[in-house]
Write a structure and sequence with these properties.
The complex is a heterotrimer of chains A (about 270), B (about 325) and C (about 280). Chain A has helices at about 45-50, 70-80, 95-100, 115-130, 145-155, 175-190, 200-210, 225-230, 230-240, and strands at about 5-15, 20-30, 35, 60-65, 65-70, 80-85, 160-165, 195-200, 210-215, 220-225, 245, 255-260. Chain A is an alpha/beta fold and about 270 residues long. Chain C has helices at about 1-20, 35-45, 80-85, 95-105, 120-135, 135-160, 185-190, 205-210, 225-235, 240-245, 250-255, 260-275, and strands at about 30-35, 50-55, 90, 110-115, 165-170, 190-195, 215-220, 245-250. In chain C, the strands form two sheets. Chain C has a four-stranded parallel β-sheet, sandwiched between helices. A four-stranded parallel β-sheet of chain C has the order 6-5-7-8, with helices on both faces. In chain C, helix 5 packs antiparallel against helix 6 (about 135-160). The chains are: A alpha/beta (about 270), B mainly alpha (about 325), C alpha/beta (about 280).
Chain lengths: ~270, ~325, ~280
């Protein structure tokens, strides 16, 4: 239960000469549902890029299942870590074809066509995300909520042990937001999938995540349980705004109410 | 899923059939009429007669060249359109054809073929193409990353520079050289050297086989470089190898046959609408249809206004362009 | 006895075998011309029966228009040529090298006649053609007649005042003739001075023409362009040629067609123009 799946040690990285993240230390246990929160520009997306090996660290190491990710290699990593981006730009193709692209890391050297196993896995992920009915529709023609589910299905088709999601609920209506978060929760619980999800909505993070990591200006400000991280001092300092933190009567988790900057006195 | 495979097999079958029919048609047709029965007997009786020579020394080489170059240009078009994620890119956008044309111009006005033999013309063309490829490659790599958008812009610019240099050369050249340059540029599938024809056919087919090593990478790249990386594709190596492959196919084609436009742009575009964007079917479909299309255009070029011959680039441009416009406008009306 | 028979058979084989390798005129029955002036010369030599094909631009004499066509001067139809079964194809410097190579690969004999650079070359080419067609005697006669008449013209014009001439053979860009072209001989033989004789290339600027201020301007382009050019030159009122109204249009086809006979005809016309 206490097995460590991801370990980030003293990580500093960025683009060209600019350092975005400095001295990041993070340990993630297998099966955890970890939320990453922080204001815009805090380095959340950079963190995801670092974990997947797209950005080389200027300092520090990242270990996946005790192995340095640069020793695992891009293809190996793709079989273990999958990323769900916020959105994608693509040519017109069916939902099924799109999800099957997620099987590419698993293709053997000269494998040309999908095997039966590939097709079954694709079908399963479509079922898991409740998008099987869309499989023959064009990916460009479905709604953005449905598309987000399909993006998750494709990531799941990679059969990852760790799923990273970059603001999956941005641009979605509340109905779809809940649907996505419930799906993530289900995957985490039922499939024992470790999940790191970057969220901009603090209440969603509060409600669904086990633990949170609060990032600001490239550093981890606070890390821990939801109650620990969602406190006045840190939130107000980091987001530079006033908030009211109450307890959500339905699940006893912190609930953040935005406080208008002027007007009401409390 | 089965249906997808069946669909693909049917498409390949149709295209191979189309290619065969066009090739046979091209063999029959020309300024001399050779009846079908005669052709069959000629295949068996062998060399000696004029008709045999017409079929196998004049028409057949052109068909083979049309196959190789039509296939190579279409393949290069598919690869580049996948690499740049832009379906308006074609093999000549990168300026490679400009470099080849420049090489050929220099060869003609310096009369290098007097000293180095007639093979020096395609060699000069190829060297010109390679020069452009090297320039593009080295200028577009920054910090180990091949920047695709910069590659495209630089290619366009190099293309303009080459054209201007060629016009400069044309303005100071003698009349005879000028004619030679102009007609080379217009494109021709006439090639006296059999070993050159065999070489380009092999290169073309090799290119097709090699491109299939990247079919999954190309599919992944259609989602973007970052997404392709997430799928485990080594994007840097893929970009470089694909760029070199497409450039070499273009360079070889242009240095042997001159500038034959439209094939590398419209055939992939057209096939993408017919067979889909999955590169596993797109690569071979474009190759086969490009080959057939060029053979057809060349056949028309040499028979439409007998006994004169039009440059094949004229037919590909007019015929291809018109068909393309017609189909696109029809699509809009349907909507 | 046997030995002699074998020897004589062998020597006959060698003799006849050798025949194939020489351009013996009696074996050349079917000739294709790829240049209008070559076609003209073939007719001049009375060998038109041997001409089985020519280009669509071979329009003089008018009988040539009835011959089988094998393409243009620059783009030839190789298939057509092959089926006409020629013994010899005569190419020009405008024929594409690729096509010549292809014809040779198909086993067809090809001779290339480069553009003659002066009158002397025009004559020697004509003589060579005569040799090939088995009409050397006639060729020699024609050349001698032409040479005599040319000499006489040269003699007559030697003592006349030299006339400065500018010959325009192309517009956009402005193109004239330098000493590399046989057209230059026209001017020199007729007692003129070609202002562009020593120019490096044929491209000439109007400014340079104005500077040289020729007495005569000859426009040798075709059709409406020639008329337009005359009007354009007419605007430069300070030119000698304009002042004295000595801008002439000459038939470009005839001017640029290098047969000895047309050379003479053109020369005579030019003399009339320059020394009215």
């Amino acid at each position: 239960m206490k097995e460590i799946i991801l370990k980030i040690k003293n990580l500093s990285c960025g683009y060209d000469s600019q350092i975005i993240l400095s001295d990041i230390n993070l340990t993630v246990e297998r099966g955890k549902l970890l939320g990453i929160i922080g204001p815009n520009g805090a380095g959340k997306t950079t963190l995801i890029r670092a974990i997947t090996g797209i950005i080389r660290p200027k300092q520090g190491n990242i270990f996946f299942e005790d192995k340095d990710i640069y020793q695992i290699g891009l293809k190996g990593l793709a079989k273990k870590i999958a990323v769900v981006p916020q959105s994608i730009i693509t040519n017109s193709m069916t939902v099924e074809e799109f999800v099957l692209l997620g099987r590419i890391p698993h293709y053997k050297r000269f494998q040309f066509l999908e095997t039966k196993k590939d097709q079954e896995i694709a079908k399963k992920t479509l079922e898991l995300t409740d998008t099987l009915k869309l499989k023959d529709r064009s990916i460009l023609e479905i709604s953005s909520g449905e598309r987000q589910l399909v993006l998750i299905a494709k990531a799941l088709a990679q059969e990852p042990k760790l799923l990273l999601l970059d603001e999956p609920t941005a641009h979605l209506d509340i109905g779809h937001q809940i649907k996505i978060m419930q799906l993530i929760e289900k995957l985490n619980k039922n499939e024992n999938l470790t999940v790191l999800v970057v969220l901009h909505d603090l209440n969603l993070a509060s409600q669904y995540c086990e633990e949170l990591v609060l990032l600001n200006e490239g550093k981890i400000i606070r890390q821990g349980s939801v109650n620990e991280v969602l406190n006045y001092r840190d939130i107000e300092k980091v987001y530079k705004t006033t908030v009211l933190i109450k307890e959500n009567p339905l699940n006893k988790r912190p609930f953040i109410i935005l406080f208008p900057p002027k007007g009401m006195d409390e | 899923m089965r249906s997808k495979i069946i669909r693909w097999i049917i498409w390949v079958g149709i295209l191979v059939g189309f290619l065969l029919i066009i090739s046979i048609f091209s063999l029959f047709v020309g300024s001399t009429y050779i009846p079908f029965k005669k052709i069959i007997s000629l295949i068996f009786t062998g060399k000696g007669s004029i008709e045999y020579s017409v079929l196998f020394d004049i028409r057949l080489p052109r068909i083979l060249l049309g196959f190789a170059i039509g296939g190579a240009l279409s393949l290069a078009g598919v690869i580049l359109q996948g690499l740049f994620r832009n379906s308006l890119v074609e093999p000549y956008t990168l300026g490679i054809s400009g470099g080849a044309a420049l090489g050929v111009c220099l060869n003609i006005i310096l009369q290098l073929d007097r000293n180095l033999g007639i093979l020096s013309l395609p060699v000069c063309g190829f060297l010109g193409a390679v020069l452009i490829i090297l320039i593009l490659y080295s200028l577009s790599i920054k910090k180990g990353i091949l920047k695709i958008q910069e590659l495209l812009l630089m290619g366009v610019m190099l293309s303009f520079i080459s054209s201007s240099l060629i016009m400069l050369i044309m303005s100071i050249s003698r009349t005879e050289d000028l004619h030679g340059i102009v007609f080379w540029i217009m494109g021709s599938l006439e090639e006296p050297n059999w070993s050159l024809i065999k070489a380009i056919v092999s290169i073309s087919l090799l290119g097709l086989v090699f491109s299939y090593l990247f079919c999954h990478a190309l599919n992944a790249l259609s989602l973007g470089e970052e997404e392709a990386l997430h799928l485990g594709i080594n994007v840097e190596i893929t970009k470089r190898l694909l760029f070199i492959l497409a450039s070499l196919l273009t360079g070889f084609s242009v240095s042997i046959a001159g500038i034959i436009g439209f094939v590398g742009l419209a055939v992939p575009h057209f096939m993408r609408n017919l067979v889909g964007q999955d590169h596993r079917i797109l690569l071979i479909s474009s190759f086969l249809s490009g080959a057939g299309f060029l053979i057809l255009c060349d056949t028309l070029a040499r028979t439409i206004i007998l006994p004169l011959e039009l440059p094949v680039g004229v037919i590909t441009g007019i015929l291809g362009g018109s068909i393309f416009i017609y189909i696109i406008s029809k699509k809009q009306i349907k909507l | 006895m046997k030995r002699y028979i074998i020897l004589s058979i062998l020597s006959l084989i060698i003799l006849f075998g050798n025949f194939k390798f020489t351009l013996s005129s009696s074996f050349l029955q079917r000739i294709i011309s790829l240049g209008p002036y070559i076609t003209e010369e073939i007719y001049l030599l009375g060998a038109q029966d041997k001409l089985v094909g020519c280009t669509i631009y071979c329009q003089r004499p008018s009988e040539a228009q009835k011959k089988e066509k094998v393409g243009t001067v620059i783009q030839i139809n190789i298939e057509k040529i092959l089926t006409l079964k020629p013994d010899l194809v005569i190419a020009t410097s405008l024929t594409q090298k690729k096509d010549i190579e292809k014809l040779k690969n198909l086993g067809i004999r090809v001779i290339k006649f480069s553009s003659p650079k002066n009158f002397f070359e025009i004559c020697s080419q004509f003589l060579e053609l005569g040799k090939i067609l088995g009409k050397y005697g006639l060729a020699k006669k024609i050349v001698q007649e032409v040479k005599d008449k040319v000499l006489e013209i040269k003699r007559k014009t030697k003592n006349l005042a030299k006339v400065k001439v500018f010959v325009e053979v192309g517009t956009n860009p402005l193109f004239t003739i330098t000493k590399d072209s046989f057209l230059n001989d026209f001017i020199e033989f007729s007692g003129g001075i070609n202002i562009a004789k020593d120019a490096k290339t044929g491209i000439y600027s109007r400014e340079a023409v104005l500077k040289e201020n020729p007495d005569v301007i000859i426009i040798a382009t075709m059709g409406i362009i020639a008329d337009k050019e005359k009007i354009i030159w007419g605007k430069y009122k300070n030119l000698e040629a304009v002042k004295n109204n000595r801008i002439y249009i000459m038939d470009a086809y005839k001017l640029c067609s290098p047969t000895p006979v047309s050379f003479l005809e053109t020369l005579e016309e030019l003399v009339k123009i320059l020394h009215k």
